[in-house]
Amino acid sequence: MFQDITTLLLDPKAFKDTIDLFVERYKGKNISVVAGIEARGFIFGTPIALAIGAKFVPLRKPRKLPGDVIFEEYTLEYGRDRLEMHVGAVKPGEHALVVDDLIATGGTLCAAMNLLERVGAEVVECACVIELPDLQGRERLHGKPLDQYLNVLGASVKNRINNHHDSAQIVPLDRRRHRQRKMKFLKKGLNPQRQSSRSEAQAALQKASR
Ligand SMILES: O=P(O)(O)OC[C@H]1O[C@H](OP(=O)(O)OP(=O)(O)O)[C@H](O)[C@@H]1O
Ligand SMILES: Nc1ncnc2[nH]cnc12
């Protein structure tokens, strides 16, 4: 199922509640960097960074950042991708929080942590709104705690949001929508500039369209 966070964003009170819950946890914890993962990690990461007085460092998909970058490649549920970070954005010894909307296989968060650790930063925690526990993404976090504030399986915080904000339910979209998105991703893999090889992407496309 594709887990969609845009319903949460439609309700300003619920969105603010969610951000506040992260801020309560991280304020005063000596975190100087919030690293947000493109694209949905930017939505949650920037307000958290502003509220705790940390700088915001975007971790972006290939060829988006204008300066010199270091990068990490990783595998997703369907295909491969790559995250990039500007050289010099994070200094050795800094304390970092990684923020994304969702952890599935953990490949994306693992790549983000590797980038930060390669430049000598310490990753304090990874913060997400949703966890898909069946995919066991936690196991790829190098032992770093995952802090999740709106667990789709019904953690207390999700209940707080869902009980108080009728329009803010996080809803799984139907399988057709998820499949369409997956096909779109795999088609992008047919572009030789992307990380997936042409033959890998074609094989995956055939499998997905069965
Ligand atoms: O735990 P993982 O298996 O690595 O998957 C989680 C990642 O997948 C989604 O992003 P996606 O790669 O679809 O990119 P997008 O947000 O730019 O659409 C999501 O926003 C996470 O970043
Ligand atoms: N099931 C899912 N829903 C939303 N985003 C995702 N990214 C990876 N898997 C996902």
From TrEMBL:
<dbReference type="GO" id="GO:0003999">
    <property type="term" value="F:adenine phosphoribosyltransferase activity"/>
</dbReference>
<feature type="region of interest" description="Disordered">
    <location>
        <begin position="189"/>
        <end position="210"/>
    </location>
</feature>
<feature type="domain" description="Phosphoribosyltransferase">
    <location>
        <begin position="12"/>
        <end position="139"/>
    </location>
</feature>
<keyword id="KW-0808">Transferase</keyword>
<dbReference type="InterPro" id="IPR005764">
    <property type="entry name" value="Ade_phspho_trans"/>
</dbReference>
<dbReference type="GO" id="GO:0006168">
    <property type="term" value="P:adenine salvage"/>
</dbReference>
<dbReference type="InterPro" id="IPR050120">
    <property type="entry name" value="Adenine_PRTase"/>
</dbReference>
<comment type="similarity">
    <text>Belongs to the purine/pyrimidine phosphoribosyltransferase family.</text>
</comment>
<keyword id="KW-0660">Purine salvage</keyword>
<dbReference type="GO" id="GO:0044209">
    <property type="term" value="P:AMP salvage"/>
</dbReference>
<keyword id="KW-0963">Cytoplasm</keyword>
<comment type="subunit">
    <text>Homodimer.</text>
</comment>
<dbReference type="GO" id="GO:0005829">
    <property type="term" value="C:cytosol"/>
</dbReference>
<protein>
    <recommendedName>
        <fullName>adenine phosphoribosyltransferase</fullName>
        <ecNumber>2.4.2.7</ecNumber>
    </recommendedName>
</protein>
<keyword id="KW-0328">Glycosyltransferase</keyword>
<comment type="pathway">
    <text>Purine metabolism; AMP biosynthesis via salvage pathway; AMP from adenine: step 1/1.</text>
</comment>
<dbReference type="InterPro" id="IPR029057">
    <property type="entry name" value="PRTase-like"/>
</dbReference>
<dbReference type="GO" id="GO:0006166">
    <property type="term" value="P:purine ribonucleoside salvage"/>
</dbReference>
<dbReference type="Pfam" id="PF00156">
    <property type="entry name" value="Pribosyltran"/>
</dbReference>
<dbReference type="InterPro" id="IPR000836">
    <property type="entry name" value="PRTase_dom"/>
</dbReference>
